UniProtKB/TrEMBL annotation:
It is a single-pass type I membrane protein. Keywords: Glycoprotein, Leucine-rich repeat, Membrane, Repeat, Signal, Transmembrane, Transmembrane helix. It comes from the Eukaryota. The keyword Cell wall biogenesis/degradation does not apply. GO terms for cellular component: membrane. It comes from Durio zibethinus (Durian). This is Leucine-rich repeat receptor-like protein kinase PEPR2 isoform X2.
Amino acid sequence: MNLTGTVSSHLGNLSSLISLDLRGNDFNIYLPSTIYNLTSLQIVDLTSNGLSGDLPDDLCHYFPKLEVLRLASNEFSGNVPSSLCDCTDLQNFSLSYNRFNGFIPRSIGNLTRIKEICLGGNSFQGEIPWEIDNMCNHLSKLEVLDVTFNGFTGHNPSSVGECSNLRNLSLSTNRFNGTIPRSIGNLTSLKGLSLRENDLTGKCF
């Protein structure tokens, strides 16, 4: 649609709004703070705008019913708040191609309804918390994990094979090391696997 300018603060008056889709526009930098009045929101899609800033630590306090959060292709920055686990209904989470950094919070393992996690094209670092509280057992519905083009490190442990519903696993262009876990061969639903441009060694499965 290619809307431009600012988003009116009157948006916050739409207290019954369930879905907010502003994809593919060119809004000025920030959204009005009144957006946090929309506590009934289940879907927020702000993909491909010129938006920037940090995610608030109490994001899930404002949006307790959130199921879909898509912020890809903007200029957002900062860390992913550990309080994200309070969005207990979250199913789709995309922060791809922004300027986020820091570590993936361990609390992500508490998002038991999550199906898609897309974090590619940022500056995240550290290890993916695969084995924190048996993450793949908790995230039994996970279908897509995309962390390409970041600075993640560490091994990909055998527990990745416990994410039995994975359809797409994209770990390319990071700093993962060690061997490719044979347990990936247990992911019988997998349709896409990308491991290129890492420091992995040994045989494939």
